[in-house]
């Protein structure tokens, strides 16, 4: 199976509501450089199918360094992931507000 065929197969799984396997994800991560444009195009088609042309800008400032109670699969701050880094005390509410306002000024729609 060619890389493009594999990419398309994974794309069809996603469009059908089926999660790709860890093995598929690893294989997508290791797609040869010459096929990255095909991968990017298919990923863009998935994104646009789910979100249209909307872009959500999020700013991560490591407020909850490995201690966040949320389980966002894309984020290394979650306590659900063993990142091997030390946790530390949360910043003061005032510090968080200052940084959140700055993030908003810079165009972020969400901040954590």
Note down, in words, how this protein is organized.
The protein has a domain at 3-51. By secondary structure, the chain is mostly helical. The chain has helices at residues 3-15, 22-29, 36-51, 93-105; strands at residues 58-59, 110-111. A two-stranded parallel ribbon has the order 1-2. It is elongated and about 55 Å long. The model has no long low-confidence stretch (mean pLDDT 86). Helix 4 links the parallel strand 1 (58-59) and strand 2. It is 45% helix and 4% strand. It contains 4 helices and 2 strands.
Element layout with pairings:
Elements: H1 3-15, H2 22-29, H3 36-51, E1 58-59, H4 93-105, E2 110-111
Helix pairs in contact: 1-3
Question: Brief overview, please?
Answer:
With 112 residues, the protein is mainly alpha-helical. The protein has helices at 3-15, 22-29, 36-51, 93-105, and strands at residues 58-59, 110-111. It has a domain at 3-51.
For this entry, give a set of tags.
single chain, 112 residues, mainly alpha, two-stranded parallel sheet
DSSP helix fraction:
40-55%
The DSSP helix count reads 4
The number of distinct β-strands equals 2
Structural class: mainly alpha
Quick one: overall form? elongated
- Which spans of ≥5 residues are poorly predicted at pLDDT below 50? none
Radius of gyration: 18 Å
With strands numbered from the N-terminus, the spatial order across the biggest sheet is 1-2
Strand content: under 5%
Distance between the termini: 41 Å
Largest sheet: 2 strands, parallel
The pLDDT mean sits at 86
Give the topology string: H per helix, E per strand: HHHEHE
